[in-house]
Amino acid sequence: MSWDNVRGQAAAVKMLQGTLASGRASHAYLFTGPRGVGKTTAALVFAAGLLCPDRAAGDPCGRCEACRAVAAVRHPDVHRVEPDGDVIRIEQVRQVQRQAALRPVMGPYQVFLIEPAEAANEAAQNALLKVLEEPPGSTVFILIAHQTTPLLPTVLSRCVPVRFGRLPRDVAADILRERFGYGEAAELGAALGDGSIWQATRWTPEALKTRRAAALALWDALTAGPAAALEQAQAWHERRDELLEIMEMLELWLRDLLVCVEHPPGAAVDASWLVNVDQREELMRRAQGLRPDALLGALEAILAFRRQVQQNVSLRTAADVLFLDLAAHRAAAQKG
Ligand SMILES: [Zn+2]
Question: In Å, what is the CA distance from 275 to each residue of 177, 197, 279, 291, 295?
């Protein structure tokens, strides 16, 4: 395990490497950022760096007993605190207090990983604050938080903040391909994951393809005119989340179509511009003769639908408008 395992987080990695290289770790760190962007991996590499006897500047060696034990989550000086049910309770923090008073078993520090820190209730946070205010000399606390609003300002102010951002799409796609076996569905997963591997892996590659097929079937059925479109809308009147997901898929498909439409005829579209990479031939075939303004109109209809749902417009009304609009743009796209 090394910093190479933490992808797309150059600023955070640089900062933590600098800390390790200086040999002066603070007592508490707060890793913040969306779920599924590498915070836990970074915390483990940082812990390995603190405990590795063969560390070279900011990098743990990755081979010694300490490094291997941290990677396997069995190092006796690394303590993980996770919610009991949904909550981290005061009893768990008291246990941390007792443990922190002891000497490390193997390395120079005891490292406590508290994840997600926002799961600590107020009593637990107040107890944690006491430990952070007077930390024993050889302890390092790493609080990992997906959101910081539930954390007490007094706790926040005791920690060195380390921020993790959403992953760039190409990095997320690489991770999905290399570590999760997404193959050709990696770009689609990365696009839907919005920079979070946790979000991207909500759907398996097979489920992604099934949903895309459903979105395309919906789009293709819209050629039968407004009455048929309204009938189609009815099927979705009770299926809010499902319809939002299908529309997300359709949106990505229409964007890819736009890329193909705008592309000079005769040349193949660069695959790196597409989300539905595996459907390049099909997209280029379908894009022939389509009108970009109508595709943009359809994309706007989807955006408007999403806004209406967020504003709690009745799903019945919003879906009817959506399907009528999409059918109109679908018909216009084919003309001329
Ligand atoms: Zn090592």
Answer: 14, 16, 9, 20, 16
Distance 225 CA to ligand 1 centre (A): 67
CA-nearest of 72, 68, 70, 48 to 60 is: 48
Count CB atoms within 10 A of the CB of residue 153. 8
26 Cα: distance to centroid of ligand 1 (angstroms)? 20
Q: 40 alpha carbon to ligand 1 midpoint, in Å? A: 18
Rounded distance between C-alpha atoms, residue 25 and residue 46, angstroms: 10
Measured in Å, residue 60 CA sits from the centre of ligand 1 at: 5
Question: 3-165: which CATH number, 1.10.10.10, 3.10.350.10, 3.40.50.300, 3.90.320.10?
Answer: 3.40.50.300
Q: 204-334 belongs to which CATH class?
A: mainly alpha
Q: What do you get for the CA distance between the two ends of the chain, in Å?
A: 57
Cα separation, 333 vs 330, in Å, equals 5
Tens of each residue's pLDDT in the chain, 336 residues? 899 999 999 999 999 999 999 999 999 999 999 999 999 999 999 999 999 999 999 999 999 999 999 999 999 999 999 999 999 999 999 999 999 999 999 999 999 999 999 999 999 999 999 999 988 889 999 999 999 889 999 999 999 999 999 999 999 999 999 999 999 899 999 998 989 999 999 999 999 999 999 999 999 999 988 999 999 999 999 999 999 999 999 999 999 999 999 887 777 888 888 999 889 999 999 998 899 999 999 999 999 999 999 999 999 999 999 999 999 999 999 875
- CA–centroid distance, 24 to ligand 1, in Å, is 18
